[in-house]
Amino acid sequence: MSYTIVLSLLAAIVVPILLAVLSLFQSPLRKVPSPPNTNLILGHFDAIRKEDTGVTTRAYSQMMPFGIFRTRMFLSWRVWVTDPKALSKILVTSAYDYQKPPSTRDFLTVLLGKGVLVAEGLEHKKQRRALDSAFSLPRIKEITNIFWGPGRNLVKIWEDMAPSTDEAVRIDVMPWLSRTTLDIIGLAGFDHDFDSLHKPEDKLAKAYNSLFNGERVPLSVMILSGLAEYFSPALWIRNQLPFFHHIKKHRMIVEGITQELLDKKRASIHSSDKKDILSILVRDNLGSEDPLTDKEIMDQCLTFLAAGHETTSTALTWTLQRLAENPNIQQKLRQEILQTFPQDRDLTYDELNSLPYLSAVTREVLRLDAPVPVTSRQPVKDDVICGYAIPKGTIVLIPPSVVHYHPDIWGPEADKFKPERFLEVGGVSDVAKGEVNGENERLRRAGPYANLTFLAGPKNCIGHKFALTEMKALLVCIIRNFSFEEDEPGKVIGRRASLVMRPKEGHLYLKMKRIR
Ligand code: HEM
């Protein structure tokens, strides 16, 4: 009897693996160009994992003809797409036929619930419709004033840490920026003051750090996620690992706090004209023919907290590092801010956007250090991309960290930090926006798909205007008050992507000095 059970179990595991091996040999994906690799078991994944985020895949993409290439991860192929026409199909025209893979959606569901980041098809359209007004330009203009409070709190704390204009202090900027953006999303998202800048022991801040600042995703989780493509119980086994229990535990803490916020909001919704995202959502929902359920609203809250917090703080962390590495650019930015607005006061949305160099610096950092370096999709039916047959279920990877560094698109100095490229009339920026015809034919063809920081199409980042405005407001606060130097001049800071692309060592030290 037990012999039969063992045999059945073995068959349940071995047969799908054998079928997977067989399908590799029969797959039409074999025709997609692929860089060489020598690791029989892990395939290209081994090299990709060992290097800093983006380094290996950038090398692969430049080795291959432009537009599409294939790598192997264990027993399955991954197809990387950088061709603008193909990207426009995957992200825009056929966006709902290209879904997030089940293992990603399952992972995000454990982390955030079933908010708009996880939803697909009609469910996604419904959720996105419900959220659109809260993230529209007029709303962002209304909440820009909220960004200054946490910005000024940060400046005050850093002033206390760096009391003199003569002496620099060594500071890990990352946790401070993370707390600042958490406080901002608390106020702008829910009209709630977490004040995590002053309360490092804040329950939510701690739970969040545990969720996002944790260890690298373990190899076992990656292997089981890969295996799940052929053997679906692998997903269940993966979700029993301690890594997932850790996530669930901290998520429950975050969920408890957001439930309190939602209850408070509901209780006062008729008597308030608050402009925060949750108030607008709850208010719009009252008059909607197709309202979101309580659970759906809760899950949106978790999604904003996650999507709107670490992405922006990571982008700001990289901005300060880039400015420390480039003192001339830092000085030019400071000059623009001080000359245009000599008085230190809260700026409006339009005033913030009247600073072209600030805008160029922000865009250049988001190009080179895109917080989401790669995302994935899976076609729900067979398709053809760049002339190659792509069977239903293939994992298609869309890598901003490759596209943004491609010399064919961004020119021979693609890997250089050069905010000026966004200021040249008829230069890369205008061409990428599709506004003028530039000299670089490839860039002109790439148009909006040259810059994928916030992706494109119906599932693009709903918070991109929020994020850009928040980054600019915080940079104005910081750069007019402090200067930054590299901690170890010339040292290359490694990049590591878990959910967002952070410094590999888990911290980012800089030398900071007060300016006045
Ligand atoms: C620099 C900062 C940010 C970056 C680089 C960024 C990037 C992205 C990217 C690449 C996606 C698409 C992911 C995918 O479909 O695979 C996305 C989606 C999303 N982002 Fe952001 N984001 C940022 C800030 C924000 C902020 C501040 C918020 C909210 C306050 C936000 C809310 C969202 C939401 C709700 C989605 C899901 C949209 C949908 O699927 O319809 N993001 N973001």
Overview of this protein structure:
With 516 residues, the chain is of the alpha+beta class. The chain has a domain at 113-370 and 453-514: Cytochrome P450 (Cytochrome p450, Orthogonal Bundle). The chain has 23 helices and twelve strands. The protein has helices at residues 2-26, 45-50, 55-63, 84-93, 102-112, 121-132, 137-143, 148-161, 173-190, 203-212, 219-227, 233-239, 242-268, 277-286, 294-325, 327-340, 349-352, 356-368, 400-403, 407-410, 428-432, 441-446, 464-479, and strands at residues 68-73, 76-81, 98-99, 169-172, 375-379, 383-385, 388-390, 395-398, 482-486, 495-497, 501-503, 509-514. The strands form four sheets. It has a five-stranded mixed β-sheet. A three-stranded antiparallel β-sheet has the order 4-12-9. A two-stranded antiparallel sheet has the order 6-7. β6 (383-385) and β7 form a beta hairpin. The longest helix is centred in the middle third of the chain and has 32 residues, at 294-325. The structure holds protoporphyrin IX containing FE (HEM).
Classify the beta-strand content into a percent band: 5-15%
* CATH third-level topology of the domain at 113-370 and 453-514: Cytochrome p450
* Structural category: alpha+beta
CATH superfamily of the domain at 113-370 and 453-514: Cytochrome P450
> Which molecules are bound in this entry?
protoporphyrin IX containing FE
In the CATH scheme, the class of the domain at 113-370 and 453-514 would be Mainly Alpha
Enumerate how many helices there are, as a single number: 23
CATH architecture of the domain at 113-370 and 453-514: Orthogonal Bundle
Biggest sheet layout: 5 strands, mixed
Mean pLDDT: 88
Give the low-pLDDT segments: none
Using only C-alpha atoms, the radius of gyration works out to 24 Å
Number of strands: 12
The amount of helix comes to 40-55%
- Principal-axes shape call: globular
Strand order in space, largest sheet: 1-2-8-5-3
Distance between the termini: 81 Å
